[in-house]
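Issue: ligand-bound run for zinc ion - logging full I/O for the record.

Environment: standard queue, default settings, no custom constraints.

Inputs:
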Amino acid sequence: MRFPAVCPQCQREVQVEFADSAVHDVTCPHCRARFCVFVRKQKFEVLFDLGTRALMDGYAREAVASFAAALERFFEFYVRSFALERAALQGQTDFGGAADTLESTWRHVASQSERQVGMMALAYLLREGREPDFLTAKALGADFRNRVIHRGYLPRREEVDTYAARVFALIDRLLGELGTGAAHAELAQERHFAAHLAALPDGTTAVFEEHPGMFRARRFAGVSPLGTKNLPGQSARASAPAKTAAPMNDAQAFQKALTERGPLLKGLRK
Ligand SMILES: [Zn+2]
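Outputs:
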């Protein structure tokens, strides 16, 4: 996937290939200036946006694969947020140490998604004090996902829409419940950026970017979708004021986000 960046030297547009690390060392093809683009975006957001792009372009199978990967990476984000938040709440002041321990712990589960789901289940139970009811195969749309990804099933557009809406609603709900907890995982990304920044050669310009996306528009760190700050263990829903508008179902919520934020993804290229 590529995204457009502007060269800080000659101001011309440069297509940059999105890196897994979200850190991009670039040499401008026009003026040869060297710069480094840091993209403040989580992996699950990148993947969900990629899925949305694929859906809008009519690539149904690719969209399903990206949405499924986005959900897996979101579970990782949740577990990381929870672990770092818990360390902070326990009075641990060495954030770097906590992040490094988390990093080495994650290696035990990194190559097996089933293990990661296990981590998610426990993290959710400990943080919310409730069963993670969303982890059933039915709630996750696992059967549909497997048919598409592993058995070559060619999905119809409306099936992909339904799946996308389900993944969107689940991530949206869990981000809301995480509330300020999400900031801890974001801080870990900033720390990773800082380490790369410190090692940049002289004369390299650093560029920080925030890309609009399906979730990013709401700046999830610190603010739940309901606009209320929530503490760990306290559900955003429980503290929400009574709503006047009729609640939207998953499909309506996804379509609304697609209409509002889909056009913002136009700059993305496969
Ligand atoms: Zn340039």
